[in-house]
Amino acid sequence: SLVVSDDDVWRDQFYNGNIKKERGAIVLRLAKSWFRIGSLEILAHSGELDLQRRLLDFIIQEHFPSIAMNDSNRYLEFFSTVVSETANLIALWMSVGFAHGVCNTDNFSLLSITIDYGPFGFMDSYDPNFVPNTSDDEKRYKVGNQANVGLFNLSKLLQALKPLLDPRQKQLASQILEGYGEHYYIRFTELFKTKLGLLGENEDDNYLIAFLLKVSLLC
């Protein structure tokens, strides 16, 4: 929902020094959870490990019913789920040409749902350099870099979780993270094959997808 105020506020919409008054507004956005990678990252950074453990247990209990709370590997299972579901989410973004716009760790959901997209956008035509965020001068969050940013954010999540993991779990978690790229690529390929109506498995499928994207870029 959007609630508009009668009060004016000063805004620099394009961050270029052209400040002007606009009517104030409050945007209300709903989600089944607002816990993000940053929610755990900030606690790990400040050394509040007991609070981090309590928060993580709450998140698992509330939103990850397939993970048993008495399982000593529950944090590892949690991380594995977030890695695979994040790969699925970004592949889905790419399959419809969606650019989130601000893909930092504080805008990445632990439930792998799309939250906190401000300057988002959809590509009118395929362009891996498409950036909907006018303040992203370096194109860090361009649509073609979303999968890489997802990997970066997940590496930050692993860093936050490491104080809660034993040496064996840390090693397994690193292996899980290494599998992110393959998981993303498989899901990306599945989605594009569905869009193209390709059935079964053919070694030329990936070539066809890449070729059509390249043709789209040239058009």
TrEMBL record:
Keyword Nucleotidyltransferase: yes
MF terms (GO), sorted A to Z: ATP binding; metal ion binding; nucleotidyltransferase activity
Superkingdom assignment: Eukaryota
Keyword vocabulary terms for this entry: ATP-binding, Magnesium, Metal-binding, Nucleotide-binding, Nucleotidyltransferase, Transferase
Pfam families documented for this protein: SelO
Cofactor field: Mg(2+)
Family from the record: Belongs to the SELO family.
Protein name: Selenoprotein O
Recorded name of the encoding gene: Selenoo_1
